[in-house]
Amino acid sequence: MSITKKVSVLAVGLGMVGTLAACGSSSDEAGGSGSGDSKTVTLVSHDSWAASKDVIAAFEKKSGYKVKVLEDGDAGQAVNKAVLTKDNPQGDVFFGVDNTLLSRALDNGLFQPYEAKGSDLVLPEYRTDQDKHRVTPVDTGDICVNYDKAYFDKHELAPPKSFDDLVKPEYKDLLVTENAGSSSPGLGFLLGTAAKYGDEGWEGYWKKLEANGVKVVDSWEQAYNEEFSGSSGGKKAKGDRPLVVSYASSPPAEVIYADPQPDTAPTGVADGTCFRQVEYAGLLSNAKNPEGGKALLDFLLSKPFQDDMPLNMFVYPVREGAQIPEAFSKFGPQAKDPQTLDPAKIADNRDQWVKSWTSLVLK
User: Fold this and answer.
1) Is 168 helix (H, G, I), strand (E, B) or coil?
2) What is the pLDDT of residues 30-60, one digit of tens each?
3) Hey, which bits of 72-211 come out as E strands?
4) Nearest CA to 219 among 208, 206, 207, 233?
5) Do 117 and 301 meet the contact criterion of CB atoms below 8 Å apart?
6) N- to C-terminal Cα distance for the chain?
7) Residue 342: how many CB atoms within 10 A of its CB?
């Protein structure tokens, strides 16, 4: 699951309309394969693509291309399907592969090279594949443990701040996380522990976490909107876990979509548990409309899109000088010192880490 997966499901949990509606008439009904004509450019994405109608309309008017969006499930599912169909792709551009899955896409030749206009304005820490330009950074966000403020206030217990805290007895049976084999935030949390404790220490950490009653569910939707007591959806579902693996941008979403809006977020972030994700887009190999695809990639890095993106997909822009919503700065600032891993390290170890984690935690 990508960073943006949280937003469409959170929106549903808060009574919002599905994210495709945000694109309005600029998005055709899903179906068919690729762009039907040279004036249509098709974006293939995970289920959480969202953009303001006026921003899409401005791109369509300026470029002459009509945008068609095909949503294709969770990020991992969407990437796998794109790889399997790379010789006859469903569209022209793929959006939503993140740094946890990037090597899978690149190693399978999913993208053809293209250096998008505005690439020189991408903040240096988010640039990758600079020699071949097969992917364009689009957004970033932090996977972190969120906590239910009301629970910890009621129990007069300080919320956890770090990975080390999560294995302490006072937090027994409080945490829910996602399956690292089926969920992007679950995988990101696993990678965060691998970055923190190293090759020799992460398995021992998970043994402690398991002994401390961590609950594992299949998806972010289930963890956040059903099990977590602090979210709007979790309250309705009578969730009883006050700690959940989610995103640093989840607290501002809880504020923005509340009616009436509270002065403070009902949830907080354990800053010492964060792993940074970066999400990319690329021009698909064998795209039927490569020129339209290039124009769309340019658009994804444009200031209008980068300014528009945070409040639609609840992620941070990667372009220098892009606007950060006040609610993000106030309720969901980026982690000061998130865990990170080199993409090559992830590529070399991801599958084995997930296999070992599965044997250890899901046995």
Assistant:
1) coil
2) 344 455 568 999 999 988 899 999 999 999 9
3) 93-98, 111-112, 136-148, 175-178
4) 233
5) yes
6) 23
7) 11
